[in-house]
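We were asked to recover a plausible sequence for a given structure. The inputs and outputs are reproduced exactly as logged, with field labels preserved.

PROBLEM: sequence recovery
POSITIONS: 162
GIVEN STRUCTURE:
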């Protein structure tokens, strides 16, 4: 917790320096302190913390981009007089392990319009996904694997399947 504690402390010091402890000054302080941690991560010994925060931000941005793309795709399909639904169930081999990472992947997949995470294989090495409106099974797998790659960066050493 060295990185997170230091980050919170720097943000609080910034707010106290301004003489006003409010949500606005704390958010600004935490933003500025993260830039300081990013610039001096090796000297401060917070390389792992900064990498984890950056990986989490990349996951959130990728999820939001995929969410917008999938919503637009579903909206365009709904506006067509005779849409090609192209429904399929695909098996996606996974590299993630552990309860929390697998649950996050299934949740992120289920939040995407047109996809539903159905089940894991008995050995938890694959995720079965129902996809609607994808061109083919590879496109559905690619979408899930993209989220998995981002989750692998966030959870780091909890992945082990090759």
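RECOVERED SEQUENCE:
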């Amino acid at each position: 917790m060295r990185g997170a504690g230091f980050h919170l402390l720097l943000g609080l010091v910034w707010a106290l320096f301004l003489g006003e402890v409010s949500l606005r000054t704390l958010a600004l302080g935490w933003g500025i302190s993260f830039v300081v941690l990013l610039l001096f991560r090796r000297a401060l010994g917070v390389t792992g913390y900064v990498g984890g925060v950056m990986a989490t931000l990349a996951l959130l941005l990728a999820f939001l981009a995929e969410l917008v793309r999938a919503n637009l795709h579903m909206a365009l399909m709904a506006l067509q007089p005779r849409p090609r639904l192209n429904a399929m169930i695909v098996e996606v081999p996974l590299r993630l392990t552990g309860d929390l990472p697998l649950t996050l992947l299934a949740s992120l997949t289920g939040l995407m319009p047109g996809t539903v995470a159905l089940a894991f294989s008995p050995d938890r090495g694959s995720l079965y996904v129902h996809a609607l409106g994808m061109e083919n099974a590879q496109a559905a797998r690619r979408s899930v694997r993209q989220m998995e790659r981002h989750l692998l960066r966030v959870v780091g050493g909890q992945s082990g399947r090759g």
